[in-house]
Amino acid sequence: LIDFLLSKGAKPNVQDTQGQTPAMLAAERGNHIIMTKLIQKQADMRLLDAEGRGVLFYCNYPTKNHMRCLQLALKNQADVNNVSTNGDHIFQVMCEKAHEVTPLCLIMLDAGVDPNTANQKTG
């Protein structure tokens, strides 16, 4: 279906009323195949939803498919230091679940995330 929609001119960077993009939804579901197809059609991995969260916030689940989505997003310019509008840094959010997503945290460190980050509103 994604191939058909993209071939008919569907925009890979369209955002819904919450600002979510197809790439964010694919990442949330761990669908690295759809993410790859969207990236091939120039999906922007730096777009933010209405809460200021980029695609990396949607990769924060303990599965291999979510790890693949994270790696794809990072290879395609996702902001490794993304901070949501409520001040949460993506790495901080991942570290809160570190017992589940340790491999994702390590990938983020390899990608250059600031390991000394803090919530920008609460410190």
Brief digest:
This protein is mostly helical. The protein is 44% helix and 0% strand.
CATH superfamily of the domain at 2-80: Ankyrin repeat-containing domain
The CATH architecture of the domain at 2-80 can be given as Alpha Horseshoe
User: Strand share of the residues?
Assistant: under 5%
Rg, nearest Å: 14 Å
Organism: Iconisemion striatum
ANK repeats: 18-50
Pfam families: Ank_2
InterPro entries: Ankyrin-EF-hand, Ankyrin_rpt, Ankyrin_rpt-contain_sf
Task: Please describe what this structure looks like.
The protein contains six helices and no strands. The termini are far apart. The protein has a domain of 79 residues: Ankyrin repeat-containing domain (Serine Threonine Protein Phosphatase 5, Tetratricopeptide repeat, Alpha Horseshoe). Helix content is 44%, strand content 0%. Helix 3 runs parallel beside helix 4, helix 4 runs parallel beside helix 6 and helix 5 runs antiparallel to helix 6. By secondary structure, it is mainly α.
